[in-house]
């Protein structure tokens, strides 16, 4: 399985769509991501409609609902405002599951020491961010991605911007980090 690319990012307020790598680059391994609850699979996005591997993951994880979203300037109304909104640090009370079918984008997640890790998502990447993890989403400089959103049961769209430490799911998540 191809290793997903992830790295610690700088604190520059330059365009959020840039890679923001530290110099020298500080890569983050799949193993390190797993320690904070982030799971990754590399699939064949060309056959997503009939992919037995995707079907198996959906059955094992209980992902019963899916939809597909295309994000790009010419199709998403108020593109720049939406991008700023996605980039607000937040958490969800459910896992966030995304599968990139085409294009590219970034997810940023916090590690145990509160440092930002940028995860580069490209075609075929399926990622699960655990409920309660602080994260944000942004496009890269191509300004295009097509992604499948997966859910356990009915889709939940509510994001809780930081601070949201009072939620039980956040407490449960931070407690899970103590053991890793």
Topology diagram in text:
Layout: E1 5-8, H1 30-35, E2 39-42, H2 52-61, E3 65-72, H3 79-86, E4 90-91, E5 96-110, E6 116-122, E7 125-129, E8 135-139, E9 144-151, E10 160-161, H4 168-178
Antiparallel strand pairs: 1-6, 2-7, 3-9, 4-10, 5-6, 5-7, 5-8, 5-9
Quick summary of this structure?
The chain is an alpha+beta fold.
Number of helices: 4
What structural category characterises the helix and strand content? alpha+beta
Distance between the termini: 23 Å
Strand proportion:
25-35%
CATH class category name: Mainly Beta
Order of helices and strands: EHEHEHEEEEEEEH
Classify the fold: give the CATH topology.
Jelly Rolls
> What's the main sheet like?
8 strands, antiparallel
Characterize the overall form: globular
Question: Would you count the extended β strands for me?
Answer: 10
Q: Mean pLDDT, rounded to whole units?
A: 95
> Can you identify the CATH superfamily?
Jelly Rolls
CATH architecture: Sandwich
Question: What is the alpha-carbon Rg in Å?
Answer: 16 Å
